[in-house]
Amino acid sequence: MVSKANREFIAELKAQDPFTGTLVPIGDTGDFAKVRFVMRGEWAFYQEGGRATLLEAFAGRGVINRRSIKRWDNGKKITDEEREGIIERVSVALRQAGNEEIRVL
Q1: Strand runs (DSSP E) across 1-102, as ranges?
Q2: How far apart are alpha carbons 81 and 3 in whole angstroms?
Q3: CA distances (Å), origin 72, targets 18, 76, 97
């Protein structure tokens, strides 16, 4: 379950206009995922369409914690396929932030 504090923080980030993070293409769909590193670069905000999540991603070290990618802000479980897509797109944002090597734990 996503905590109330995290849901509120995610809602603030979703409402941010203009968005100050990285826009990453979602395949050839023409859609973009929003990725922003928050909390001293130790977490990543990820939004795809109307749903979003927070995950552990250490921006300064190019590390993503796979186990932290659990639920969307609406409480629905993130599927394995969705998790892999999130990792792929957050990796793109980490590379754009200057990380040459990305490690997924």
Answers
A1: 22-25, 32-38, 43-48, 51-58, 63-64
A2: 24
A3: 22, 5, 24
pLDDT at 100 over 80: yes
Distance (Å, whole) CA 14 – CA 10: 6
Q: Which tokens go with 9?
A: 């923080």
Residue 43, CB half-sphere, CA atoms under 13 Å: how many? 13
φ/ψ of 66, rounded to 5, equals -55, -40
Residue matched to tokens 């990725």: 35
Can you tell me whether residue 9 is helix, strand or coil?
A: helix
User: pTM for the complete prediction?
Assistant: 0.94
Q: Could you tell me the CA-to-CA distances from 95 to 14, 15, 63, 98, 100 in Å, in that order? A: 23, 25, 11, 5, 6
SS3 7: helix
For residue range 4-62, what is the model confidence (pLDDT) as tens digits?
A: 999 999 999 999 999 999 999 998 999 999 999 999 989 999 999 999 999 999 999 99
